[in-house]
Each structure stands twice: as structure tokens, then as C-alpha cells.
Amino acid sequence: MKPEEMKEKVVSSIKAIEKAPRSMQMYMEICAKCGTCASVCPIYFGKPEKRYNPAERSDLVRRIYKRYCTMSGRLLGSLAGAQDFDPGKMQEWVEMFYECTGCRRCASFCPFGIDNSVITRKGRAVADQLGLTPKTMLKVIQVSLATGNTDNASPAAFKAAIEFLEEEMEEEHGGTKIKIPVDVVGAEYFYVPPSGDVLVNPEATMGVAKVFHVLGMQDRWTMSSKCFDGANYGLFTGDDKSMKADNKAYVEEARRLGVKVMLMGECGHAHRIMKMMMEKGRWWGDLPFSIINCMEWTAQQIEAGRLQFDKSKNAQPVTYHDPCNFGRSCGIVDEPRKIMEASCADFREMYPNRAENWCCGGGGGLSAMDEIKEFRMEVSGKKKLAQIRETGATYVATACSNCKRQLTQLMEHHGLEIEVGGVHDMLSRAILVDGKAAERVSYD
Amino acid sequence: MEALKFLLGVFLPYLALLVFVGGMLYRLARWKKLASPPMTLYPAPPDEAGNLKNLLKETLFFKSLFHGDRWLWVLAWLFHVVLALIFVGHFRVFTNVDAIFMKMGMSEQAILAMSGGAGGAAGVIILVTAIVLLVRRLVVQRAREITSVADYFALALIGLIVFTGDIMRFSSEHFDLSDTRSYFAGLATFSNVAGDPLLDNGVFLLHMTLALLLFMYIPFSKILHLGGFFFTHQLIRKN
Amino acid sequence: MPTPSWIRFQVEAQLSEIIFSGRSYKLDEWGFLDPPDQWDRDFANGMAIVQGIRGGLGPAHWSFLEYLRRKFHEENTIPLLVVACMENRLHLSDLRRLFPTGYHRGACRIAGINYDFISSVNLWHTYETAPPAKAPYDIDQVGFLKDHRQWDPGFVDFIQQMGGSSYHPGKEGMKILLYLRRRYRDTGTVPTVFETCTANGLGLEELGKLFPGGYRRGACRLAGLPFLG
Questions:
Q1: Are C168 and C101 found together in one domain?
Q2: Domains in chain C, number
Q3: Which pLDDT score, from 0 to 100, does residue A395 have?
Q4: Chain A residues whose beta carbon lies within 8 Å of the beta carbon of residue B42
Q5: Contact C54/A at CB under 8 A
Q6: Do C114 and C156 reside in the same domain of the chain?
Q7: Cβ of C127 and A444 within 8 Å?
Q8: Of A150, A172, A421, the CB nearest to C127
Q9: Sign, CA torsion C52/C53/C55/C56
Q10: C92 and C163 in one domain?
Q11: Which residues of A touch C82 (CB under 8 A)?
């Protein structure tokens, strides 16, 4: 692409901020450059350099906005903090916007409530329009739109995998048959996990199946052989079109199955898109079903005293990492703790936690990008590593596939023998089915 | 010289008022018009009342900043609170609010003592905090690396206004408020104030000119947070 | 005697190459074989030790590894964990028993598939465990144990594996090794070959038979004594 052409596209994309959304335009106009965002940012903590300063990153967009959309910027130029776009810096632009995890921690502490993740998403959307989205991200989106899941698995493979999991649970529970219903029209609950929780780390899905079994509700829920992956990377690349396309398939499937509740799995951004963006923003109008998370649902059952556990099955010290999309963006913080405390003997908090938790360093889709592994291991994950070490836990549970991927690599890279896993994974190991917990060979 | 006095003493106040009010209304109208998709950030208050309470906490106590950067909070909170006090205190300069205080039972001496004490202290505190904030910008890396000319300009402008104000307050020459009251009364009634003797006071003219420039600057600069602040918190905390 | 705990030892830096049976293999930054065409059975045997598989690779291991390599070579893919288990009629627990460090980090690594390829095929990888690829012992450049306190009887097997020989000093030899270690611990010096012979009632020739690698490079190295001790 010619530099002039590139510049024209970037500028017109940024000029569009004049039309919406409101938050974006206000963020362009009122930042006081006080530096508070930097002092709470996991990236800047990892490496205090100008390049990693959230306000500086946001200024990439802000400078161009001021140059073209504000009177002061047009008249006074750099005196008013305005600057023209330099096509030669496009590569740096892309890199910098993929060095923000969009964790929204800055928004929690900014005196004006400026949410830099909104600006990051805009910066990425600009890159996306120029076809400069990192290849890994593009590939995930392409696979996801083509097959409906990020693991490139066919419905047949999915069904076979489910059968395997049923056998696996039968083995774990001494012959008790625990069902995972698939494609059942007229079921009440429609479980939408991230595909990794079925095909690669299936314990979470087994955990959910066991909960339904214990409650005697094994015929009232279903999964879909076409829609079994809530992951939606359009959120991360700033590409609204593919985000909505991916999302639409799930809403339509839920309508086709005639379910009453969409039960989102342990996937932060999937739940956020479904609950906070799609439902609240009324993308597809009125929905005949409600949306809750499986952790909320299980926690309710625990509170009502319907589930029993053998905590000795999870004897090691365990801590919980709040995924940003669950903590800050969806307010689901107490439910996972209820599940952990019910199923683990030694649950420990890390501090700060909940809505003030530090990002794992792999948010915003970064976790899938192995090309920036060094950055994720040494810069963005630094704070999380220290936090986990401090707890002395040997197992970190978290409810997000992206976090899990980042944390696993983080532990591996730094030579720590700390296991990473999910919340329902822990539940699956300790829940009593017919009075007995799973017989499970654990890794040594 | 007469032309300059007319420009700064008569024309500029009207212009500044027009630009400030017009500019702020323009901004607010534009923001209001824009679509605002939900973007809740937790912990979010469950209802409007909670939201309002949260906004009050943010406005009066800078809640977020308090949790984010304690040192900056001390400086910023002092700076803004004192700034607000000074703004309120200036009503004595424009018009005879003393009468109200007297009605409330304060003696003239008490009013003067309050003005001299609180006003004097405010004049010192704001100058000090403004200087420390400037030093912070120059010294603290994470602030320095994102500071541009515009940020220094805003701080310097406020610093100069405070400085000229302090000269008037603390100089040995007595500054008679009845002069300013009659001058502003003249402005408010659209009488000809071009020949007002007050405008011969160079420090006053400079102080007022800078203050008016600041007001005109607000809608077009980051000091716009004066208005934006109330909405951005609502945007992210709305459940 | 403490039981050997293969995967408990920490190595400060990630290895960039690893030596098994006298052959050096290049690893990627995650400790996976890269390029994959370096793979041979010696690598698999060696990596199996590093991945905590004790007692060597058995037929069940080999059958699974061959399955993975077939998928990798012929179909240019890695099956998803659940699919791999299904096609090999293994329960998750069976796989866990076979490859204690997991599917991707254990089995795929021993099968010699590089990390980038695994990642490009399976975005989500297993996170059951996350022990890094670690040599169980810290070895210096000339193949001696860096810290003699790390020694345990497993070290002899380890050196044997790295050297690629089927030689083992046997019960008699182990006695000599323990003597050497005791002497080194008590005096901080390595006894001369004559002292060792006298103390154990052996002739020089008998000692040479027990340790064909020589006294210093054979016996003392196996005993975990440092190179210039």
C-alpha cells in the first residue's frame, strides 16, 4: 500500500471518532496526562518505558484526532498536542497496540475514568482496516468463522470427543453414567464453553456435566455440535463485523434449540461479549433466553447446599486469578471463589484481587501470539508472576483460556512448578457423585 | 494605550464569556449527541442513586485517584479544592457579597479576617501545589514522558494567574475592592468602563487578562475535564 | 539413599541444546526439538528421562509416539488431546501415567515436534502441568556435574544415557563411587587412583575393568565429583 493511501485510510478512520462513540471522543479531549494509568498498568510495571506508557499509546490516536478534528490542533499544531500521521511509523503503531492487554485496570484508577482499552481497540481497528492485524490473530478469526470454533474441529470430531468424555467420567466414577447431551432441541440450558475446555483440557466441561448430573438435571441441558466455542477474537482485533458474525451464529443456535438460558463457560471475553455487549447493546433485539455464566450457576447450587465435595482431593494450596473480563468487565468475582472454597482445602487469595486484580499479561488476545512471547514472559506477565509466587500456591485456577495459556507459559518460562487450570476443573476433581469423588490419576 | 485598555478591559471580558459559555455548550451538545454503547466497569453501582453517590465521591474526594496514586492525589486534591475556594472567594471581588455575610451576623472585621486568612492561605497553597505539580511533571518519569507543550502551557498559565493574584493580595499597596466592584457592575450593565481608573493598575489588568484567556482556553484544551469529568465516570460505571 | 527425583531440579536458563547419547540436539526457546528432523530414538529416550518417565520408554509409549509422528509426518497435524486419546484407546489417566508432564509438553515433545508447529495447529494446549524441559542435573561443558551435592544414583543412568553406552558399573562399581563421594565430602579433595585402589583392595587393572572410561573421566565423573576437584 502506498504511504499516501495508508495515511488517507488512517486519517479517515480516526476522523470517524467525531461520529461515535461518546466515550472515545471524550477520551480524546480530556486526558490530563497525569501518569496515573502508567502507575497501575501491568505492562508499564514490567518495563517503565515511554513506549509502554498507556497515555503515550493512546496519544498515537489522540495526536491525529487533534490534528484533524479540533480547532486548536489545526491552528496550533504540536503546541496543542496535535501531530500528523506518519506512515513510516505504521509498523510501530501495530506493535504498540498489540502491547496493551486491554485489561481496563487503568480505567479503574484514572481520575477521569478514561478507559484506554477503548482506544487500544480503535488503534487495532485502524490496523485491521489496513490489513496489518498480526497473522496469528487473523488465523484464529478465520478458523473460527470457517468452523465455528478456534480448534478447527468438525461437528463429528466434537461428538466423538463428547462420547470419549462420557466414557472418561464413567471410568472416574466407577461406572456411573454421566451424560453430556448434544444438539437437544427443547433443552433449558445451552452450555457454551471455549472449545479448549472440551477438546484439549476437558475437565471443565466434565465438571459442568457432573453438576447437572448431581442435580438430576442431566436431560435439561445441551451442548451444540456446531457452536461449542464462545471465543470471539473480533473483540481483540477491533473488527466489529467478524465479531458480530461470530456472535450471531450462537444466538441463532440458541434460538433454534429453543433454550431458556445460555450458560456461558469459563471464557472471559466470550461471556463479556454475550452478556455485556450483545445483550445490553441489543444487537439482535429481544432475546427469548437469558445469559448467565456457569460459575454463577454452580455457585448458586453450592449456596443452596445441593452439591457436596471431598476437599481432600484438592489438598494443594490453590489460588484464583481474576480474569479481567470476568472481574472488571462482568463483575463475576465472588462466584468462582465460592466454588474454589467449596472444592479446595487450601484456598489462598492474591492481592490485590477482584476488580483491582493485575492482568496475567496475555489479555486482549496477546496470549495467542507466540511471536511476542518474550514480551509476555518478561514484561507484561512480570507482576502476575510475582503475585502468584507470593501466595505460595502450587495451583493457579482461572476462568479464561487466554489467561490459562499465558499463565502456563509464564510458569514454564520461569521454571516454576505451578499447575494452571480452571475453576470447574477443581470442582470436577472434588465433587461427590453418588457419594464418591472421582478416581483420578494425578500428574506427579 | 487607550486602545489596549479598551481591548483588554472592555472587549475581552465579553468575548471570554461568550467563548467559554458557547464552547462548553458546544462540547456538551456534541457529546450528548453521540451514541454510547454499554461499557460497564465493575464494581458498578446497582442503580442511579448509587451511581450518583459514586459520582459525588469522585467529584468531592477524587476516589479513583486516591486508590491509584496517593501522592498525586494529595497534590491534585489540594490544588482543585483550593482552586474552587478561590473561585468562590472571587465573588467578593465582583460584587458586594459582604452584605450577605453581615445579614448572617458576621462583623466587617470578621469578614476581612476570613478573607485575609483563608484567602491568603489559599493563595499560598495553590502557588505551592502548582509549582510542585510542575516539578512532578519534570521529575517523575511516567508523567514527564507523556507531557507535551500544551500541558506545560496550561500549568504555567494557571501559575501566572495565581502569581499575579498573589502580588495584589500580598503587596503593601492597599487594593480597594470597591474599585473592582464598580468596574464589574459597569461591565454587567453594559456601561462604558473604558475609562475606569482600575484599568490603570497594570498587575490587575494582567491578572484579569490571563484569567480570561484561561477561560477561553478551557473548552479547547485538556482543562475540558472540568466538564467531561462528570460524564466519563458515568459512562464506565453505569450498570 | 534419596530417591532420584528427575524433574525437581531447576536449571537457571532454558536449554538451547541438549546432549543425548553423545549427540547434540538443538532446541527451540520452549525446549522443544527444532528443527524436528533431528529426531531419532536416542532423542526420545533421552527426552523421556528429562520428562520424568522412569524406567525408560515401553511399548505403550512407543505406540503413542509413533502415532503422533505418523500424524505429524503424513497429515502434517497434531491431533487434539481428546482425539489422540480416543484413537489410541487411552483414558486421560492412562496418558497421564504414560507421560507425566502432559500431552503437548510431554508426549509431543518426546515425539520431537517443535513448539511453533504445535501452537500453529492447536491454539489451546494442555495446561495440566507446566514443568519446563529441564535437564535433571546441571552439567558443565565437559560433561561433569557442576554441583556434587546434586548427585544421586540416578546420575549414573543419566550419564550412561547421555554417553549412549549400555555400560553400567554394577554393584561393585557403585561401592567405589560411594567411596569416592565420601572421601570428597570429608576431605574436599579427589583421592589419587592409588589411594582408591588401596582403600578398596583392588588392583589398578581391576579398577580399569570396572571403569573403562578411566579414573578421572570415568569413575570420578560418575561419582559426580567436579572436573577440577
A1: no
A2: 2
A3: 94
A4: 327-331, 333, 355
A5: no
A6: no
A7: no
A8: A421
A9: negative
A10: no
A11: 161, 164-165, 198-200, 202
Position C8 scores a pLDDT of 28
Q: How far is C196 from chain A (nearest CA, A)?
A: 39
Residue of A nearest to B70 (CA): A36
A412/C80 Cβ within 8 A: no
- Touching subunits for chain C (3+ Cβ pairs under 8 A): A
Model's pTM, two decimal places?
0.87
* Contact criterion met (CB < 8 Å) for A26 and B62: no
Residue A16 touches partner B, C-beta closer than 8 Å: no
Q: How far apart are CA A427 and CA A211, in angstroms?
A: 9
C136 touches chain A (CB under 8 A): no
Determine the structural domain holding residue C166 and report its residue range: 148-222
Name, in order, each residue with C-beta under 8 angstroms of A77's C-beta and a sequence gap of 6 or more: A67, A83
Closest to C200 measured CA to CA, from C168, C177, C226, C225: C177
Dmax (CA) for chain B in angstroms is 61
Q: What is the ipTM of this complex?
A: 0.91
Q: Do the domain assignments include residue C31?
A: yes
**Chain A residue closest in CA terms to B233:** A113
In a domain, C103, yes or no: yes
Instruction: Clarify whether residues C166 and C85 are in a common domain.
Output: no
Per-residue model confidence as pLDDT tens for chain C (229 residues):
232 222 223 333 456 778 777 788 888 888 889 899 999 998 998 888 888 787 778 999 999 999 999 999 999 999 999 999 999 999 888 888 899 888 998 999 999 999 889 988 888 888 766 555 556 677 776 778 888 888 887 788 777 766 656 677 888 888 999 999 999 988 888 888 888 999 888 888 888 888 888 888 888 888 888 876 5
- Please tell me the distance in Å from A109's CA to the nearest CA on chain C: 33
The CA distance from C168 to A120, in Å, is 61
Residue C4 domain flag: no
CATH number where B230 lies: 1.20.950.20
- Min Cα distance C26 → chain A (Å) is 18
Which residues of chain C does A164 touch, with a Cβ-Cβ cutoff of 8 Å?
A: 82, 85-86
Which residues 60-119 of B have a C-beta within 8 angstroms of A?
Answer: 62, 64-65, 67-69, 72, 76
pLDDT score recorded for residue C158: 74
Tell me the helices (H) and strands (E) count for chain A, helix number first: 24, 8
Q: What percent of chain A has pLDDT over 90?
A: 86
C45 touches chain A (CB under 8 A): no
C155 in the same domain as C107: no
Query: How many angstroms separate the CA atoms of A392 and A415, rounded?
Result: 15
Cis peptide before C4 (omega within 30 of 0): no
Between CA B187 and CA A207 the distance in angstroms is: 76
Q: CA-based Rg of chain A, rounded to a whole angstrom? A: 23
Distance from CA of B184 to the nearest CA of A (A): 30
Domain hosting residue B121, numbered range: 2-237
C100 touching A, CB under 8 A?
A: yes
- Look up residue C192 and give its three cell numbers: 589419587
Mind listing the pLDDT tens digit for each residue in A87-96? 999 999 999 9
CATH number for the domain harbouring residue C200: 1.10.10
Q: What's the number of domains chain B is made of? A: 1
| C154 in the same domain as C116 | no
> For residue A311, what is its C-alpha cell?
476437599
Outline where DSSP puts E strands in A178-298.
189-192, 221-222, 261-264, 290-293
**Are residues C171 and C116 located together in one domain of the fold?**
no
CATH at residue C116: 1.10.10.370
Chains A and B touch (3+ CB pairs under 8 A): yes
Domains in chain A with CATH codes = 3-132 (1.10.1060), 148-301 (3.40.470), 307-430 (3.40.50)
> Cell numbers at residue B180, please?
473592582
| Mean pLDDT, residues B168-196 taken together | 88
What whole-number percentage of chain B has pLDDT above 90? 67
